Request: fold
Amino acid sequence: MTAFVDREPLLGCWYPVARADSIGADPFGFRLLANDYVLWRDPTGQLVSAPDRCPHREAPLSIGSVNDGVISCAYHGWGFGAGGACVSIPSSGPDATIPPAAHLSCCHVVEKYGLVWVCPGDPQVEIPQIGQDEDPAFRRINTPVEHWSASTPRLVDNFMDFSHFPWVHVGTFGGAQDPYVPKIDLGQLDDDFFGYRYEVEASNPQEAVAVSGSEEETVHRVMTTGFALPFSVRSTIAYDDGLEHILLLLSTPVDDLNSLFTFVVWRNDDHSTDPEEIIAFDRAIGAEDKAMLEQVPGTLPLARTGVASVQSDKPSVEWRRRFSELIGFSE
Ligand code: FES
Ligand SMILES: [Fe+2]
Reply:
């Protein structure tokens, strides 16, 4: 097993940890790179995130409460407001002098694509740009943030791989696909994503009609799949009638063996179909990947010789090579 979450360069990356609309009146606790954090909205509605540890006696702040944007520690009631500043120490009275060490050291946090993204260190790697997010012809559909008992590098390795489609996805779209994978040419897809372009004949069962917009038994799709370091994968699907379906697959390492997973969809359809109907098919596909990956123990070996690879693994092997370089892993 190759532990990776303690690699310092990962602190400079952004990780989606929750749906922005799920952060309400209560503190939200989450685990990222094997550390615990808390998240809440300050008096102006801005998100604040910090290690889930009160500077006083280290109680988890996530078991406290939020009132008017101030989070109160459940142990002795210290309060923390905008920017994590300590604003009250009840035992010292209203005129208390707040010691500098009482303030929280906050993480960077932004809302993008309907998600809350946290960077625990100094940001070194940008959140990938999805141009369709600004394009009024496209609508965005968010999906739940799920917990997968599988290691994040295994998720990315899987999302970069299409030789598993006729095996793992036989229950959804993979049944019509030839298991033979022709030679893959890798290249830069745009400024942010690196990957490959391919064409498939996909099964188009009744459950897929809302997504494909076609009643045919199989549909022709031109697709691209690419990654942006460390863990974002984008899949684009273009149908012959001009319909485009963009999927951003986002994996966040909870620790070496567990992940958060969510995906975001952009589509240039006529916006009439119920979004739940649109994502139901992609969620069924995700459930097939989850069921497989949760059976695979440990995290992905990063050493080239740790697992056997063939030509169809070229994209995921390239992700693994660049990821290893990012985190400073050498064999
Ligand atoms: S531990 Fe938080 S106020 Fe004492
Ligand atoms: Fe899959």
Summary: The mean pLDDT is 94.
